[in-house]
């Protein structure tokens, strides 16, 4: 139905318009029945529907729904199509429960593995998180249900999350933390965005004009509305001015009165309120019109999808001697309380009530043809060394062909609401693994955890399967992978460190009483480990298969491009094993020589490809300006620097056997205006000023040669040559002001000012 929203808003009173800017209750927006504006329902996500039977009654139970793997697991699939399919299923369940907006996806960056909510987030890499988030949004919204991308922005810890002030430089904020939100907004066209509780550089996210207006609305063109996280409000009118449309949940009539009074007093321009209401109505009517009364979905089909997703997400971390997949004829000792009572989701607002739950013990018994025994091994409620439980497990393991230990983190170790203080598993589980492996060399460990753990027992286990929090079908999916019904194809979307002290944010997490300083800057996750040449336990992008793959060739269609053009990169990969399998081809870009600090390499493309034994496929990636660009804080925009870039491809961030090189020529200007502090390298990168910069540098170098005589006697020829090389390199980056007499130059101040004027005129600045 087409409506003239501006005409509708013109019919409304100030009080009616203000009322739309806060919720009706915990989960609904207000209606304005006089002019035909309906109420819509929203509910928690993102990996399942957490709807209460009565939206206005917090004591009511949550309805049964499909619990899919949480974000940490889903991202490990690296499968855009799968994420979109899960999103579509979520949309269908929303339609069936008359829910118009599901709160998710959660795309915050995994700055530290200690963040208690990391199980809900996708990745440490902003490109991967952005791609996964975009597909989630597209899948849900294809069904006529809105999403709310969260938590905007730089919300990377649970400690003091309501009040912590995130101090992060502009470049890091844009390249790492905002980049993860870009795809869901620009590609996915997310209907709503949820702002976070915290402050960013001194302003609450709910009233941060840079985030909500400059970036979200102006740069990315977001046409929907921004809502608060529940209770994430500071000053209501200030928030509205900054770009916050909806406060959730309902907090009494005072907030609406504040807005209405601010309009009537002239403090708030009514046009600001009208624009906010128009954004609200655009989403409200789109969501309301898409409702389908009596909609039904196929629960068994959704459970099958949850099982497929969980299996696709599992990451094979170790498989010595090809122990996995298991032979169904083998006798199996299933050990660990988590095999019988699975931990399949995280704690907090995303907690789902699944209508079905597959335990791994039952699934292994169903899949195996040999004898299967079970021992609890440890307690889930307390971390104690229970010798009776351990001895039972050891005795069982020694009597079977293989032992499969289900281990991981209990609910008390990680949840929304608090951060972890260590990366350890319960000590009783670690000891159990050691004791079992001492009597059973064929020991497999299957993990259930929402975030990285350290593995002091890694050498004891022959195989390790990372299952993350795999949702309601995690048990059957684990059996599918263990017995080879599914060939594992997941890869880590985050780095697993050897120890906590090795992590990038170790010295700056979770900060002090009032603020947290993002001191590691751009070097989050694998960017840090590569720059420091630190070897992690398992690198970003890592994951094994029951088959093998060979990276045979990389081709580029151009060796020289302008930043207004793109380059196609084709990678040939072959399945060299005896089983069908899926490989995740990863493409990274490495600046060969940059004038600014940059990571060693960054992920810029990936594709999951299915291959039969012996089959080869060519995968083509298209790289444009953004693949080579960094965020330039002088022009406050992305800038691709002139220079050579190596494009590398392989199975993980630590293994990129294929490489090609492309030269990029910048057509942009990396500064707003030429000043006396403009650097030579910036002028050299621009065709219109390159000749001038080259001549000026050469003239300056001649002056340096003449000055060299002053140092020759004291330094000798060798020392003088070293000094000269160092100074010349410095001169390459030095500003124009060095021409005014410094280093033997003969340029006067008047000459310098004239040069600056002429350069600005030449560039049209």
From TrEMBL:
Coiled-coil zones: none
GO biological process assignments: carbohydrate metabolic process
PROSITE patterns: GLYCOSYL_HYDROL_F3 (PS00775)
Designated name of the protein: Glycosyl hydrolase
InterPro entries listed in its UniProt record: Cellulose_deg_GH3, Fn3-like, GH, Glyco_hydro_3_AS, Glyco_hydro_3_C, Glyco_hydro_3_C_sf, Glyco_hydro_3_N, Glyco_hydro_3_N_sf
Gene3D superfamilies reported in the protein's UniProt record: Glycoside hydrolase family 3 C-terminal domain, Glycoside hydrolase, family 3, N-terminal domain, Immunoglobulins
UniProt GO molecular function: beta-glucosidase activity
